[in-house]
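Input record (one chain):
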Amino acid sequence: MKRLTLLCVGILAFATSVSAQQVLGNGQVSGSLETSSIYYAPDKKIERPEDRFGSNNYIKVDYLSGRFSAGVQMNAFLPALVGYEGLASGYKFYLASKYIQWQDKNFEILVGDIFDQYGNGLIFRSFEDRQLGLNNSLEGVRAAYSFGRYVTLKGMYGRPRLYTEYSKTWVRGADLSVSLAEIIKAPAINFNIEGSFVNRYQSLSQAPEYMSPYLDAYGIKPNLNMYSGRINFGWNGLTVRGEYVGKGADYIDTSYESTRKGWAALGEVGYNYKTFSVMGTFRTLKNMNTPINIFESNIYGGNTINYIPALTRQYTYMLANLNPYLMEQVSLNGEMGGQIDLCYSYRSKSNRYRYWNFHANFSTFYSLDKLAWIGDKRQLYWRDINIDVERQWDKKWKTLILYSYQDNMDHQAHIFVADVTHKFNRKASLRFELQYLLSGDEKYEWDGRHSEGDWVAALVEFNFAPHWSVYAQDMYNIGQSKMHYYNGGFSYTHNRTRVQLSYGRNRAGYICSGGVCRFSPAYTGVNLVLTSSF
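The corresponding structure, as predicted from the sequence alone:
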């Protein structure tokens, strides 16, 4: 607890000292600070982590002057929080990213750590997600040039970050976008044709000694080539997007004794008219996991240069997100499926405080190949049928009712959520949730995941704008473990600084962000989260 207290004092002092430092010479300085620290408390029902304290800290500073910009980010793990697989054990303080950039009307060049994405990210995406502990930025150079509004060409070259260090792998790529709408002088439509190429080079001298005799037998080559072609069309509320990806033979998992080619196809169709919108997404792929280091395990964490999220609804409610769809279980063998979203809003003409929001979502995914062990059929990987209705009754009352039916490979669940908000005045409000998960039949166990029976959950939250928020929640398994997973705390916001302090017992499970998940072990502890920007 002493380390946690000292860290709080130091962070608050830093946030206070930098809040006014915004001008430097002829330029503008901006920055942010984020820290998440946990003291792991003893708990008779949950094993305490070996490290009694963990803290993930990020400090970022950017400078902008005209067309010139530069920035750095420092990370400190003191040590890293449990569940952040791949981050170094013990204390780690390092330069996580840096860049200098020059940008004018048609030309851009950046030297340093690159965050970018080609198309939908199926062949390349470098990004940072602190909630997942991922940062696969590319240290190198990126340049882009636009020929008016007709053609944009980008190129890059560098080595990707693999957790806290840089890999010895080299990645190069190019991306081209051509606006046919501009060429044919059709301002009412948006019509682009795009294409990308990415090459990953890794010297075979990096292979572990035990694998050296098998490199030729497995067909492992130092170069991997990937390409994609895309089309984007938009007109009068209608949007159509498509992408096809091809990937050369890649050694994608150390449990396989051969290289495998990969491919993917993604299509989206959407339409919106006034308060109605519908969006459908379809994707099929196989062998599209692309590791930074082919000889490194855990290719589903930070060891990846592309982005393959689960295309399903992303929930914020506790029980609805208890067993998410995990792409890493299926993408090697392939999947096919998609989702459709429908939204409609009805507003009262006589009272602007009254409205209805209707939302329905359906997603389902199957194995790409038929499997003999289930009767020569495609295996169902995931299905979610959900609907929610939000009603604003007047100035004070708002309700949301949600139902979700999930079939997650191993078992089924019916999930019910009631979310009610009452505003006492312009500053004070009370929100509470009631949730119930009715477990269906268990089909079979997959990778250790199985049904735990029924669950109930509740949350109460008081908000006192613009500074204070206090909450308490509990999630209870009434099926097998009879375990309470409770949590309570408060947050305080002042200008651009927010502090949150909480205590509770956290269930082992998956934390997801943007359709990508990481596993977090169970723990009980005090959690301090602070964010500040200037």
